[in-house]
């Protein structure tokens, strides 16, 4: 098949499946994006895992545990989708450890208190859903199907966080202040999750042409902001952006400038927790080696028994 025919299939909204012919650049683009997405799910467990032992009630603890387990599952779906493109899980993890593969900038910020569990669920999962609902229609079949499953769980996560924020915002003045403080710290990093502005996004051209991304970074960011402002107002919290203002003409909120120096610093490895997150992943991966070996040996034994 030629690239021209491939593009026609994409334009006709036909899904591309693992054994179909695809341009090498399409395959590489997908491996990069899906693996970074998978790494984000797995590294994203760390800031929340930090609070499991200190959840304020058994109910809160069970919900948080279930959410974190879901993130591990999302990582597994995504690694599996990525493996269908002809790369192994070991190679993907190695790329993460070598600093060749990125993960979402947001997970390089610390979670300082229980209110941060609310803000992460509400804003980080909220931003992730907006992005992932759009990716349900991505052109690569296994990625698209993975997104459908992930989105179902992600909306529970967003509500888990919003419930924490709503409860704290309706609590004592100190609790309300904690919720506001978490929103103040996590707001800007969460809207940076959508990536650089469209004009500064080198990957968007091919991603949109190949329908890997269905909407641009700025379109998705705007959609997230438009949805979230009313949610903040409803629970009496203020989004920390003095330039945030409804624009009658565009039908969207205008908002202030993001600190792109901070964004690129964090993406390039110099955020508050980059080293901690990666070191922890390396340590956990090493400690889990015997489990992987045992699982492989068991699978091999089963194989021999069935021959
Ligand atoms: N962080 O040209 P673009 C979750 C990089 S899931 C780090 O615009 P693209 C669930 C980008 O990779 C969150 N790096 O790139 C959860 C590229 O570098 P490269 C993860 C970023 O790919 C919740 C360069 O900048 N979701 O949170 C970021 O077209 C709670 C130029 O950028 C996904 O991964 C960033 N924020 O657009 C889990 C969704 N933004 O690779 C646990 C799938 C950009 O050329 C707890 N991914 N970069 O070296 C996407 O939709 C896209 O890849 C974007 C970036 C939108 C992230």
Care to describe what's here?
With 307 residues, the chain is mainly alpha-helical. 66% of the residues lie in helices and 2% in strands. The protein has 13 helices and two strands, in the order ααααααααααββααα. The chain has helices spanning 3-11, 24-43, 45-49, 58-83, 89-97, 114-135, 141-169, 173-192, 204-209, 217-234, 260-267, 274-287, 289-306; strands spanning 245-247, 252-254. It has a two-stranded antiparallel sheet. Strand 1 and strand 2 form a beta hairpin. The radius of gyration is 20 Å and the shape is globular. It starts with a helix and ends with a helix. The structure holds Phenylacetyl coenzyme A. Phenylacetyl coenzyme A (FAQ) binds at residues 32-33, 36-37, 40-41, 44, 71, 102, 104-105, 124-125, 128, 131, 192-196, 201-204, 207, 213, 217, 267.
